[in-house]
What we know:
By secondary structure, the chain is of the alpha/beta class. It folds into two domains: 15-43 and 294-410, Lyase, Ornithine Decarboxylase, Chain A, domain 1, CATH 2.40.37; 72-287, Alanine racemase (TIM Barrel). It is 28% helix and 26% strand. The strands form four sheets. Strands 4, 16, 17, 18, 19, 20, 21 and 22 form an eight-stranded mixed β-sheet that branches. Strands 5-6-7-8-9-12-14-15 form an eight-stranded parallel beta barrel, surrounded by four helices. The radius of gyration is 23 Å and the shape is elongated. The mean pLDDT is 97. The chain binds pyridoxal-5'-phosphate.
Amino acid sequence: MIKTKPTGPIPSGYYAIDGELAIGGYKAGALVAEYGSPLFVYSTALLDARMAQLRATMPDHLDLHYAMKANPFQPLLRHMVGLADGIDIASGGELRMALEAGAAPRKISFAGPGKRDEELEQAIQAGVTINIESPGECQRALKIGAAGGIKARLAVRVNPDFDLKGSGMKMGGGAKPFGMDIELVAPTVKRILNAGADWRGFHIFAGSQALSADAIIETQAQTLELAARLATTIGQSPEHINLGGGFGIPYFPGDEQLDITKVGKALAGQFKQLPEILSSTQFAIELGRYLVGEAGVYLTRIVDRKESRGQVFLVTDGGLHHQLAASGNFGTVVRRNYPAAIANRFEEEPAETASIVGCLCTPLDRLSDNAAMPKASVGDIVAIFCAGAYGATASPANFLGQGPAVEILVE
Ligand SMILES: *Cc1c(COP(=O)(O)O)cnc(C)c1O
């Protein structure tokens, strides 16, 4: 007997029509018949529901930003521009896409190491806020602003002296390419002020993909405390503080939904007891996967069904070139199964143990490993969930000459 491995939890909001997985009211099979396979389907209704849930649970005056690197698909981005209070970008390319999607420059902030002079110039010209990552970058930005006669909008990204516990990707604490070590922050802000540029405040991002409310609450408290300490040293109130994000989504068996009601309540409590120096500061959090991850499904057709040494392989026309994360090759140590289903047999009981693999000629291309599935045949459609973030643009689409998947935004 082959040992069956569990799959991650299917996100809420998915349902069946005539036994078939439906997204935005359309059956998976109909979507694939019309748009082709492999196909990323993003649901507007699920995006809206997620944002509404956050608005209901987070403190009123907290801005909710979308970190667009999670999913820059233009129609989805345009929708998120309408929903979010700000768009966080991390390259000149994303700046172009955000402006194209209708984001107001005042609502865009630009973080990330290695900003080139052209990118700084485009951002300063456009009037977006730049989160400065190093003293050297600060110098270049001030020079570019002065040369163009523009008061650059500059915030300082801080490398915090703590990290988000249990986070999938640590972005703070210790030596990091992101942000400035704490002792460099005050001198840099003074330089910005002395140069007559527009100091916007701080950006403090401590980690990603946390499912523990307590860990996020602790990090937010530490972030506020750090910001107050820095502002006191500088002797000036920051207009704006980006508190980071790190809200995770359940991908794997045993993962549980983050309790955002708890996070929201704790943050509201923190806001009630802010020190004087932060009392008029506008706060924001920046979220990527939490806003869009569960709103997307990757659909891929089974092109072959074969057995090898007693194990069943469902071979699809998709793979890691679109869904690198589901294959376990994007920042995970131990490979575990994403939520997966046979879309056109969504309500059938499991009848066998099968592995879902991609069409790439590498053993890395495995979308689901020995999971319990209904008995599927050639022509059936596999659904991999949690595909709304870090799918299409975070996977090597050109590997083996495969090319990109189709993406659509439905109701
Ligand atoms: C990637 C990134 C995010 C988004 O991370 P998620 O885990 O998708 O929420 C937010 N802020 C910064 C600075 C990032 O680099």
